[in-house]
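One chain is below:
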Amino acid sequence: MLGLLAVASSAFVEAAEASNGTSEDRRDGWVSQPDGRGTFDILWSCLFTIFLCTWVSLHLNVPATHENYWHQFFRKMRWMVQAIMAPEFVLAFATGQKVEARCSVELFKDLDLPAHCPKWTIRHAFYANMGGFVLQPRQSSSFPVNSKQLHWLIQRRYVDYPTMTADEIWDKSKADGFQKSLTCLQTAWFIIQIVGRAAQRIPITTLEITTLSFVLCTLVMFYQWANKPLDVQSPTILTSHKTIAEILLEAGTAARDPYKQTPLDFIDNQSPSWLTEVQPHLQFRTGPRMRPLPRFTNDRFPVIGAGPDAVGLFLFTMAYCGLHFAAWDFSFPTPLERYLWRAASIAIGGCAFIFWVCETYQDGHRLGRWERWYAKWRGDGRDGRINTMEKTRRNRRFVPVWEIIVMSPVTLIYTVARTYIVVEVFLSQRSLAVGCFDTVQWSEFIPHF
């Protein structure tokens, strides 16, 4: 399917020429469909595809036990809006979660487990990091634990190793094969339609260009979240014979500081997170107010590193932004709208690049990556690793002043540009090139002898 997407993207240059109609060959207002495709056909095909790409593809974390259906529904709606306004950021979250899951699999390899215990797989890691395991200490409040915290508890025999197999975890997933199949079929058909129109030099609308960008992000998100259970409603309870006070006391000085999220913050404090750290820092209303956290938020900033995952995510992000340039010479209702589209496309691409540069630098600083690389370059025999205290200090200042100063205008510009793109793709439907209502002549692709 990604191959079809590449073909569609490469054919946009020719499609742009065909879409560059003049005011004499345009059709204004609502166009019916008896003689070809109409306005309804264009809107239905794109909106249905966008809905599937943004709703079905979202794999959110396990909700808190006290949350009802409407809490979960409106949370998913907010993330759907986020996926519409900035799908590349949701893709970054998915990539970061997969990287953390792979790291968890490596971490659990050092546990000396009996032969009958199931192997810790990437599904176990996803399940743990999404809040699937909840610790119930003796005479203490329960709270979710991620894979790092669970590894620490198992290693010190505070809890037993979970006996759930990967298949049993998958049974808890509400992954609907029909929904995913429908999404894949619809996106594949949409891509084929775009390829067919481009091959026959039939004009393409800006709404279809934007929809194709959602398809790109959705396909990659499906791949990154392939092993993450979908819509798990109830977590797995892990009981401990110790109270949380006893666990913290035995942890020593590492656990002496008051916790902000859960009592096991000294192992992993779910940092950085927008709801639990950035919003309080900016004096905004925060997310879950209960402590310990009753659930893991979905917005933990991805720590992807500087390996192939980061490179791949960067390339896909730039590809998503670059798709908007395919409409550079498309026919718009007015020249002003075309110039604004061009400006918005440049702004989205430029802001995404600046964000990547800033976040990559700051992420490397938090983890001491640049010091290690510099030490290796100097060849002075030091690995440049930062100690635990320094790493904790840097994590607490994960949003430095310089990043706020740089990212505030970048975020504003991106928001304005992205909002214009979303609004314009619908406004432009009021006046389209006549060719936009032509249908693909599939018979022309059949060889004639």
User: Anything to note?
Assistant: Confidence is low (pLDDT under 50) at residues 383-396. The first strand starts at residue 26 and ends at 28.
